[in-house]
Fold this protein.
Amino acid sequence: MQYDLDAVRRRFPALSISDSDTPRIYFDNPGGTQVPQGVVDAIRDCLVEANANIGGGFATSNRVDEIVAGAHAAMADMLNASSPDEIVFGQNMTTITLHLSRSIGRQLHPGDEIILSRMDHDANVNPWLLMARDHGVTVRWLPFNTETFEFDLPELDELLTDKTRLVCVCGASNLTGTINDTRAICERARAAGAWTYIDAVQSVPHVATDVQDMGCDFLVCSAYKFFGPHQGILYGRRAVLEQLEPYKVRPAPEQIPGAFETGTQNHEGMAGTIATVDYFAWIGATMAQQYQEKYEHMSRRANHVHAALDYLFEYEASLAKRLIDGLQSLPGVKVQGITATDAMDRRAPTVAFTAEGALPEVVAMELAQRNIFLWSGHNYAVEVVNALGLMDKGGVVRVGPVHYNSDDEIDRLLLELDHILPQVRAA
Ligand SMILES: Cc1ncc(COP(=O)(O)O)c(C=O)c1O
């Protein structure tokens, strides 16, 4: 594959920063990505040229009206929603989920059941536990197989009953990197008459996402995980969103999406999010022509964005493979996730590992001193780390390459780990 990594990296000003002559290596991407220059410019332009509230009829306000409409349209393209009205902006995924759980909770009754997963980030777990507590709803748990790091879908079939009202699962795990078959999960839930709430925070940065094809009722993601600003985004299927009572102030719009967008929005974030979607469209248009045919039925920008993600997925899979192979060759290191070479399409490049005799936090700190950035611990994936029996061992070290990382950066990390791990063990 002819991937012009240099052209991509040149777009991201943060990637060329060094500290005391040591280049920064960003493997902290599952916790938040760097942004292309277009995003920086769009945020700046919004703050300078369109710094007003919406609906005022004067120049700055008109401009911000365009940005708000443009951001809904851009995210509708990114997720292939059937209408920009199905896109709701908010502060972040967690806040959106806590907010929406209040409206969903009003629809549930004692004795109803919801299904939560042991693979999810706590932002797709505790909002629902709190909702279940408040409304007398029963929680059923979908485990994942700790050998394969995947769900066994027949287990979901056993949990689904005519009382199930909601199924909450992730598109991809923020810890193990496993990508779930959300289409199959949504199909099963729908057949049982349940809604689906997909936490796609870790899949949207890596996988072309088509909410219509997936058949979900809700899907949430965060722009700062896919090269944009700090902003959360919800897709809600119109027919379902319109059934919910929005918790809102009285003068706010009654219609979707405004009814669910509480208070003044982050307009500069929306401007940045449009630029993020346009960044993917640029990749799709200039590098991923061979992937466009599959998405011919979509609008031009949606086509390019989806083609870009398919294209980048291949490159990211090669990074993941290199990283996993390298980690597995280090003595005492265990990858906590899918490792089979022929299964790279079932995982994101997010790779968690543990190293015998080395605390994850200490390894991460040693790497930080060498300007290699990554996260350790439970990463809010409390259920996952508990299921893997790693909570009292300090969790994992999580390496999260994305499409702007290089083979050289992976090799540098592996080299450093080769030095660091024996030292940490000996200390
Ligand atoms: C899978 C997953 N879900 C939800 C969240 C929470 O996202 P936010 O920071 O937008 O609330 C994260 C953040 O790391 C995540 O990785």
